[in-house]
Amino acid sequence: MGRKWNNIKEKKASKDANTSRIYAKFGREIYVAAKSGDPNPESNQALKFVLERAKTYSVPKAIIDRAIEKAKGGGDENFDELRYEGFGVNGSMVIVDALTNNVNRTASEVRAAFGKNGGNMGVSGSVAYMFDPSAIIGVEGKTADDVLELLLEADVDVRDIEVHDDQVLVYAEPSQFHEVQEAFKQAGVTDFTVAELTMLAQNEISLDEEAQAQFEKMIDALDDLEDVQQVHHNVDLA
């Protein structure tokens, strides 16, 4: 499962290099989650999840508070959650998740990002069947045996446990995200290196140097779009 982690690591490194853009994306996501339910994360699982993710990206408290206060004040912005699917060079597959207040604009921008970089948008369901929705929780300071023991004690059955770069990664069903985190918290672990709900490719492909450069350019173009929250793909960029 190491290759799957490489995509997460690559994506996080890319985001770390563009902190202001990432903070803006989290601000939007927090606002939408807080507006869709109770602005208290203890009674709003969607908001609680977003805040856990935001913590792993060191999103400033001021940005979080501002987004929640905006939602409490009944902000009049409404966003649609959209998913686009498409293809890049040499059979590569891409899933784009977006939050937008202008569907036509977002569709046009996503289509252009694909088209200008050797790719093309597909219809709904054209690539998603080749990905598995997954929760990934990462911690440091524990061994794989430690993590397995605490999960067994909490009666939490997960997909897999992997050690990568001094981190222990737990792969689980998306519905188990909070269950896994709670097991860690009960064991005294409250800091997570990774806290993601993502789409992991069932099979990854490798590209030659030229094709990979073109593919990465397309991924960067998609990720740079204001309305795009996450980009998932099946290319091994290690």
Describe the structure.
The chain has 238 residues and is α+β, with helices and mostly antiparallel strands. The chain folds into three domains: 16-72, Orthogonal Bundle (Arc Repressor Mutant, subunit A); 80-129 and 204-233, YebC, transcriptional regulation domain (Alpha-Beta Plaits), CATH 3.30.70; 131-200, Alpha-Beta Plaits (2-Layer Sandwich), CATH 3.30.70.980. The protein is built from eight helices and eight strands, in the order H-H-H-H-E-E-H-E-E-H-E-E-H-E-H-E. It starts with a helix and ends in a 5-residue tail after the last strand. Residues 3-74 form the TACO1/YebC-like N-terminal domain. Keywords: Cytoplasm, DNA-binding, Nucleotidyltransferase, Transcription, Transcription regulation, Transferase.
For this entry, give a set of tags.
single chain, 238 residues, Arc Repressor Mutant, subunit A, Alpha-Beta Plaits, 3 domains, 4-stranded antiparallel sheet, 44% helix, TACO1_YebC-like_2nd/3rd_dom, Probable transcriptional regulatory protein HMPREF9372_1853, transcription regulation, DNA-binding, transferase
Summarize the structure.
The chain is built from eight helices and eight strands; from the N terminus they run ααααββαββαββαβαβ.
